[in-house]
Amino acid sequence: MKNIVKAGAFSLVAAHASTVSAINVTATQQTSAGDNGSGTDFVATLDNILGYLIGLLYFVAIVFALYGGFQILTAGGDEEKVKKGKTTLIQAVIGLIVIFLASSIIRWVINLGTNGTIVS
Predict the structure, then answer these.
(1) How confident is the model at residue 75 (pLDDT cuts 50, 70, 90)?
(2) What gap in Å lies between CA 12 and CA 41, rounded to an integer?
(3) Is 93 or 13 the better-scoring residue by pLDDT?
(4) What residues have CB less than 8 Å from 73, skipping those under 6 apart?
(5) Does this model's pTM top 0.85?
(6) Residue 60 C-alpha from the chain's centroid
(7) Phi-psi category of 78—alpha, beta or left, where left has phi over 0 and alpha has psi -120 to 50?
(8) Number of alpha carbons in the 13 Å side-chain half-sphere of residue 99
(9) Is the sign of the CA dihedral 102, 107, 110, 115 positive or negative?
(10) Can you say how many angstroms the Cα of residue 112 is from the centroid of all Cα atoms in its chain?
C-alpha cells in the first residue's frame, strides 16, 4: 500500500513539475512586505505574539470557569463552598469578557496603525 501511495504522489509531482514557470524576481521584490524596511514585519510579529498571549488567557479563564463549576459540584451542600464556586465562576466569566474586549481593542489599534494591511 505504501508503494502505491508513493508512486501516486510521485506521479502527481512529476505531472505538475512541467507546469512550473520561472519566478519574476523583480515583481516579487516590489510586492514583498517587510523586506523593504516598512516595519510591517515587526507589526505582524507583534500581532502574532499578542494573538498567542490572548489565546493563553482564554485558556486560563476557561480553566478557572471549570474549576468554579467543580467547586460547586463538590460542595456537598455546604453553602460557603457553593458561594466560593459561584464567585470563581463569575470572576472567570468577567475575565472572558475583559479578554474579548482587550483583544478587540488590540486588533482595532493594530488595524489603525497599519491602515488595515494586517487581516486576522
Answers:
(1) very high
(2) 35
(3) 93
(4) 85
(5) no
(6) 15
(7) beta
(8) 19
(9) negative
(10) 20
Burial tier of 82 (Cβ tally within 10 Å: 0-12, 13-18, 19+): middle
| Short-list 106, 13, 89, CA closest to 52 | 106
> Does residue 26 have a pLDDT over 60?
no
Q: What is the pLDDT of residues 42-59, one digit of tens each?
A: 777 887 888 899 999 999
| Cα 58 from Cα 50, distance rounded (Å) | 12
Q: What is the 3-state secondary structure (H, E, C) of the chain?
A: CHHHHHHHHHHHHHHHHCCCCCCCHHHHHHHCCCCCCCCHHHHHHHHHHHHHHHHHHHHHHHHHHHHHHHHHHCCCCCHHHHHHHHHHHHHHHHHHHHHHHHHHHHHHHHHHHCCCCCCC
For residue 8, the model assigns a pLDDT of 46
For 45-71, letters b (16+ CB in 10 Å) and e give: eebeeeeeebeebeeebeebbeebeeb
Sign of CA dihedral 20, 24, 29, 32: negative
